[in-house]
Amino acid sequence: MLVEGVDAGYGAVRALDGVSLAVAPGETVALLGTNGNGKTTLMRCILGLLRPTRGRIAATIDGVTTELVGRSPEEIVDLGIAIVPEGRRLFPRLSVEENLLLGAYRRSARAAIPRNLEFCYDAFPRLKERRGQAVGSMSGGEQQMVALGRAVMCAPRLLLVDEPSVGLAPILVARTVEKIAELKERLGLTVLMAEQNFHQAIRIADRGYVLVHGRVEFRGDSPAELGDSELVRKFYLGL
Ligand code: ATP
What we know:
Bound molecules: adenosine-5'-triphosphate
Structural class: alpha/beta
Shape: globular
Strand order of the largest sheet: 6-7-8-3-9-10
Oligomer: single chain
Number of strands: 10
C-alpha cells in the first residue's frame, strides 16, 4: 500500500495535508495520532469512501498494483482490502453469525463463506458458542471480535483497523491487539492500524507514523524509534 502526497478534507476543513506513507506486504504499520488528527480520514480515502483532492493511493496485492483513487468502495473491497471501522458499526439486533455473514456480501467473498466462517469460529471460539446471540447484548470486547471476524469474512489481504481500543477496558484492548497479530500471522495479512493507544499499538507494529493536524510529523522505523521520539514522548506519553 502506497499513499503519496494525499490531501483530503470536508468542505473548508483540510483533514489531510500531503500525507505519504507505505506499508509493505506482510507488515503491521501503526498510524498514531490523538483525536482529530486525520487517521480515520486516511482510512476513508484508502477505502474509497472519501476522494482525496490530491495525491495517489495504490495497493499492491499478490504482486498486482492497483490505483485506488476514483474506485468505489465495492471495487476496493473486491481487491482484498477490508476495514474494521472505529466504533465497530455492527448491527446490534442481528446475531453474531448474521453480522459475520454481512462481511461476505460481495460476490467475490460469497463462494468462500463456509471456509471463512469456519476460520472465524476457529479463531474466535467464543463467537461460535454465541453464534445465535444478538450482538447488542454482548460485551465490548466480544463485539470487537465480531467486527474483526466480519472483516475476515471478505478474505482480505490488507486489513485496515481503525482505533480498535475505543471504548474497551485495558485488558480487552490488549486481547484485541493480540488477536489482530494472530489473524495477521494465520492469514498472512498486511495490517494498517490507526490507534491512539501508543503502548498497545507498538506491541504488534513493525513500525509506524505519527499524524499531527493531518500531516505525517514522524516516521519511526521500529517500535523503539517511535518510543524514543520527542514527538511521541511529548504528545502521547506526557513526558
Ligand atoms: P478520531 O479518532 O476522532 O476519529 P482521527 O485522527 O481519525 O480522529 P479524523 O476523524 O480523520 O481524525 O478527523 C480529522 C479532521 O477532520 C478533524 O479536524 C475533524 O474534525 C475533521 N472531520 C472529520 N470528519 C468530518 C466531517 N464529516 N465533516 C467535517 N469535518 C470532519
